[in-house]
Amino acid sequence: MGAAFRRPVVGHVVRQAAIVAILIAGAAAFVLVPARSRPASIEAGFWFEDVAFESSRLGSRLTSSEIATIESVARAELRDAFDGLPIAISSRRDVRYTLRVVQEVRDLRFRRAVGVAGQSRGITGVGGSGSVSFDFLANGAMAWAPAGAERAELVAAIGRGIGRTAIHEFTHQILPTVPIHDSRDAQSYEYASAARSAQYIGPMHWDLARPLLEQRLGSSMLSARKTGRSP
C-alpha cells in the first residue's frame, strides 16, 4: 500500500516539475522572441568639413552661425526621413556608413570638371561612404528659392537641399543595387536630380525606397511611415 501510495505522489511531482519547466521555457521564449525581432540599429556618420559660400542673393558671405544652422536643418531632414527605421544619425567618422559635406564634389566619370550634388559607394551588408557638395546645393538654393526670400529662408533652403541629398546618398549606400533613380516623382527623396525646387522648398516624401529600407533593416511599428509627407 505504501509503495502504491508513493507512486502517484512521485508521478504528480514529476508532472508538476514538467509543467513548471514548460512554463519557464515558454516565458523565456516570450522574452527572447521580441528581443530577436527587434531590428539592430545601424549608425550613419554625417558631418561638415570646412565650407564657405557667398552669393549676391545673400548679400555677404555665410557666417559660422549660419553654417551651423544649415547643418542643424540638414540633420533634422535626416532624422525625419529615417524616423521609424533603425538608423541612428551621428557625427562619427569610424562607422559603417559615412557621408561628409565638402566644398565641392566632382563627377569622377568625367575627365573635365563636372560638379554633382553628391556621390556614394556602398556594398550590401558591409557599408558605404560618400560626399555631398556644399557649393552645388547652396547655388541650387539660390536659384530655386522664391524671389524676395529673406536671408534666413535662403539659409534654411540650403540646409534642406543638403539634408535631402544626404538622405538620397545614404539610401544609395544602404541599397547599393536598387535603382532608386527609377522614381519619376520629383518630390521624392529618390528622384535622380537635385535641379528642382522640391530639393529646397516645400515638403518631400518617399517613393519606392522606403519599403525596401524597411525590408532590409526592419522598422518600428510605433512610428508613422514617412510616405507622402515631410516637414
What does this structure look like?
Helix content is 42%, strand content 13%. It has 231 residues and is of the alpha/beta class. The chain has one domain: 3-Layer(aba) Sandwich (Collagenase (Catalytic Domain)), CATH 3.40.390. Strand 1, helix 2 and strand 2 form a beta-alpha-beta unit. Helix 2 (64-81) crosses helix 4 (151-174). The chain is globular.
Reconstruct the topology from this structure.
Elements: H1 2-37, E1 42-48, H2 64-81, E2 87-90, E3 97-102, E4 118-123, E5 127-133, H3 134-144, H4 151-174, H5 209-217
Parallel strand pairs: 1-2, 1-3, 3-5
Antiparallel strand pairs: 4-5
Helix pairs in contact: 2-4, 3-4
Descriptive labels:
231 residues, alpha/beta, 5 helices, 5 strands, 42% helix, disordered C terminus
Give a nutshell description of this structure:
The protein is an alpha/beta fold. It contains five helices and five strands; from the N terminus they run H-E-H-E-E-E-E-H-H-H. The longest helix is centred in the first third of the chain and has 36 residues, at 2-37.
